[in-house]
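Teaching note: in complex prediction, the entire set of molecules is handled at once rather than each chain in isolation. The prompt given to students was simply: 'Predict the structure of this complex.' The entities are:
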Amino acid sequence: MLLSILTLISKWAIPFLLLSVPLYGMLKKVPVYESFVEGAEQGFYTAVKIIPFLVGMMVAISVFRASGAMEYLSRAVAPLTALIGAPSEILPLAVMRPLSGSAVLGMSTELMKIYGPDSLIGRLASVMQGTTDTTFFVLTVYFGSVGIKKYRYALLTGLTADISGFLASVYICNLLFR
Amino acid sequence: MLNLIWFLLLASGIIVAAFNGNIEVVTEAALTAAQGAVKICIDLVGVMALWLGIMKIAEQGGLIQALARLMKPLMVRLFPSIPPEHPALGAIILNLSANMLGLGNAATPFGMRAMQEMQKLNSDSPEASTAMCTFLALNTSCITLIPATIIGVRVSLGSPNPTEIVGACIFATSMAMLMAVSLDYWFRTRSPWGGKD
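The expected output is the structure of the full assembly:
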């Protein structure tokens, strides 16, 4: 019930916005088309401004992953997973989660194919996929769009949140699905 | 810190590849990733233009400011350094709402807009402001009410109950968000990194 409401909202949200905002503008006597074009002009510059930041970050992450270094890292921290009650198959996902969204989606799909979507591993992979974001990517894009090069403590906050999200996923899956 | 992480990602990757005797993957990965990054940005142009255009209408009609006013009690606590009713707050609210609804392609332009407004308050410094750090803490840990991608994967793999993970996702993200907000608050108020602006 709740879910079908949520699905309905997500299906209607964009058409709703595309109608209601210009309608509101018309009522407020905003020159809607002119305003739209004025705002849209910024889209190009903003997207282009991100390019150097994203190239830098994606090259480093891609080299790290393709070389196999990522796998060594997840193997090195593997003993920790037993400690928190997670199957060790899930660890590469947790390590990769903040770095690359597409890699994680590929990995969790693979895990669900092998173990089944409703195994503990499959469910855990699903929950981790739906939890937290690709922190490195988001920070690179958002800070890059305004030319920020010094992130201060933002990365540390984001990564700690990712770890908390991982621990919470393991906890809740063990509780609900074991 | 970022300089070090970036260097370590690259250097450890190249060293591992060299030891494994497959140094050629480095070249391939680096070049493909560089091209891929540009493609992502170019793909962003259209969506970005669409939503920034819609947002301009909302702004000139006063809708963004009204939204900021509505959420003021919460926003002044989370973002004490942004003046109440500043357009940045409206953009932040739009970004987080779009994130929650799983509208990723609308969330990014709203987020960029929020960053630009905050950068004005930051007098175009190359260093992040505390408000930006708080915003990104919220953004990266934000609850998604409908994790559509993963539900899709589960459906395609024949799960009899593809949506049963939604509750668990909401629990786990809430924990992550709680952590992010408290840690950000601690950094902002108690650590030597905070204080500025």
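Point out the following to students. DSSP finds nine helices and no strands in chain A. The mean pLDDT of chain A is 88.
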